[in-house]
Write a structure and sequence with these properties.
heterodimer; A: about 280 residues; mainly alpha; MetI-like fold; 2 domains; 11 helices; B: about 300 residues; about 75% helix; about 0% strand
């Protein structure tokens, strides 16, 4: 049952506008000051693109960005695979040994403070390395940490899609002689495809954004972009950080718009196909 | 349901099931449970000197590690700095949760009452900041609240004040940063809950003589209990251990446990102490964590995750 809509009072409208202003004004100021020609970040000294030029020649930033993107890509992929399996386990198997523990394990990384995740995983890897000589701190250890959080996010997204999915289609395929893997490949996967895509994008962002756990897990030669930004932000205001923020916002805005458009079209096509299938069948 | 299940199909089914449950389970145990036990073990380990990186090797051998030392915990309980930090972390996390609830509940409520065609856009606008870097959004407040920052400059220009107000590196700047960061985590579960509410229940309350306020407090609020719990836990638990916001926006009086843990590890190189701080932090958030998990499991069971 959907709540009835269309009855927002003036006070309600004011509350919404003030709330959105609170959410967006800081981001807007970040963008504005990235075009500021004064070294003093807070004083306006005229319009310039020079911080973008500085950024393009900053090798430290470019290296960190490359590593961050690589990590986000691998993390998103592994998180979606593991998160999908986890979501399946929770939705399709109502009884198995340790299900409650499993569910707690799957949701805990969403909220457990990152200092704990980072510290515990790092100490574990150090102990492991002393015992068997592997792994070195670096991209692998960061990836392992990101995936533990990422799969939790992916599992939540995929779980809700699986729950609202019509199970009778899978059962019908099974009745018509499909093997379990065929059912998954031909029916389930196309139906949850959109959820997998959102989960992938979400975990990509989570990984790209992570700073605390990453700081614990990164080694000397493996600085990600957020870790670099944090170390610079600690020193004070810095217009190149504003330039990075502006680029991020631009990329996200374009990405989200393209993504919504794509999903909207998919949704429309799916609805049309379904309607056609019901009509013809 | 299924026809002619052969022995091989049964085998595939059974192994498929094991694979589906086992793979993520194994990974979580490996990267989540075992590391926590390592922390637990290190927190009760002793060493001859300041517990440096090298000294810890002696505790690698499980056989000789039967004597647990609670020295670090005793220190945690006796030192005022740590006790104050725990108190202060809980205080700021609670304040943050309450402010987020105060702003977020009406916000989610009005979102859910908006025209159906508006809702997807409103929802996207709440989650959009989440797609940009959280670190950068926290950093933005430095430019806003600095002595020579946007807010002070604006107020001076308007003639409201003559001298800049000291806002940066205070409890105020840190609280603003925390509310700003965690507000969407409060709004989203509340919205998900409120938008599903049956409008006829309010109408029934009205028909039975309850005014709008009375209907709101007696019908809407109790029915959204799960959303309130979920949102509050999503805000409270990570706030307790927050590191970035106190580091960038906090000041000397805003003691936070996450920052202490960070410093014990990175500045003091005291791994045992950092571990003990982590264990006590887990104890602090254990109850809210259980509450959150209970809600989450129930929500998944009902299909409203």
């Amino acid at each position: 049952m959907e709540a009835a809509g269309g009855r927002v009072s003036n006070f309600g409208r004011f509350w919404l506008i003030a709330g959105y202003a609170f959410l967006y004004i800081p981001i807007l100021t970040l963008i504005i000051y990235s075009f500021n020609d004064s070294k003093m970040v807070t004083l306006w000294g005229g319009f310039t693109f020079k911080w973008y030029g500085v950024l393009a020649e900053d090798k430290e930033v470019l290296d960190a960005l490359a590593l961050s993107l690589k990590l986000a890509f691998t993390t998103a992929t592994s998180s979606v695979v593991l998160g999908m399996l986890g979501a399946f386990a929770m939705v399709r198997y109502q009884k198995f040994f340790g299900r409650t523990m499993f569910s707690a394990h799957l949701t805990a990384p969403l909220v457990v403070p990152e200092v704990i995740t980072g510290l515990s995983l790092l100490l574990f890897f150090v102990m492991l390395q002393r015992a068997i000589g592997w792994p070195e701190r670096g991209m692998f250890t960061i990836w392992a940490g990101h995936t533990s959080v990422g799969m939790a996010y992916a599992a939540v997204v995929i779980q809700s899609r699986l729950l609202e999915m019509d199970k009778s289609l899978e059962e019908a395929a099974q009745d018509l002689g499909c093997k379990p893997f065929q059912v998954f490949y031909l029916i389930t996967l196309p139906m949850i495809g959109q959820a997998l895509a959102s989960a992938w994008l979400l975990t990509f962002t989570v990984s790209l954004d992570d700073v605390v756990a990453t700081a614990f897990l990164s080694g000397p030669g493996s600085t990600t972009l957020p870790v670099l930004i944090l170390s610079r932000a600690k020193l004070g205001l810095n217009p190149t950080i504003n330039a990075i923020a502006t680029i991020t916002v631009a990329v996200v805005a374009v990405g989200v718009m393209a993504g919504s458009l794509w999903m909207y079209k998919q949704e429309k096509r799916r609805a049309a196909e379904q309607a056609a299938a019901y009509r013809d069948g | 349901m299924s026809t002619a299940t052969t022995l091989i199909d049964k085998m595939v089914d059974r192994w498929g099931r094991r694979l589906v449950i086992g793979t993520p389970y194994l990974y979580l145990i490996l990267v989540f449970s075992i590391p926590f036990f390592v922390v637990l073990k290190l927190s009760v380990s002793t060493s001859n000197d300041g517990i440096r990186f090298e000294d810890l090797t002696t505790f690698n051998d499980w056989v000789f590690n039967l004597t647990a030392s609670f020295q670090k915990y005793r220190f945690l309980l006796q030192d005022d700095l740590y006790l104050n930090t725990y108190g202060s972390s809980l205080k700021f996390a609670t304040i943050n949760t309450l402010i987020c609830l105060f702003i977020g509940y009406p916000f989610a409520y009005f979102m859910a009452r908006s025209p159906v065609s508006m809702r997807p856009v409103l929802l996207m606008l709440v989650s959009l900041p989440f797609w940009t870097s959280y670190l950068l959004r926290v950093y933005a407040w430095r430019g806003l609240l600095d002595d020579s920052g946007t807010v002070n400059s604006l107020l001076i220009w308007l003639g409201a004040i003559d001298e800049p107000i000291k806002m940066m590196h205070t409890a105020f700047s840190m609280t603003v940063g925390m509310v700003y960061t965690y507000l969407p985590f409060m709004i989203l579960p509340l919205y998900a809950n409120l938008v599903k509410m049956d409008g006829r229940l309010i109408e029934a309350a009205n028909d039975l003589g309850a005014g709008p306020m009375r209907a709101f407090w007696l019908v809407t609020v109790p029915l959204s209990k799960n959303g309130i719990i979920a949102g509050s836990m999503l805000v409270f638990i990570p706030s307790v251990g927050e590191y970035v916001i106190p580091e960038l926006l906090g000041g000397p009086e805003t003691l936070m446990i996450g920052r202490v843990l960070w410093d014990e590890f990175f500045a003091n190189n005291d791994w045992a102490m950092a571990s003990a701080v982590a264990v006590t932090m887990v104890i602090l958030i254990l109850f809210p964590l259980a509450l959150f998990n209970k809600y989450q499991t129930a929500a998944v069971g009902r299909g409203t995750a």
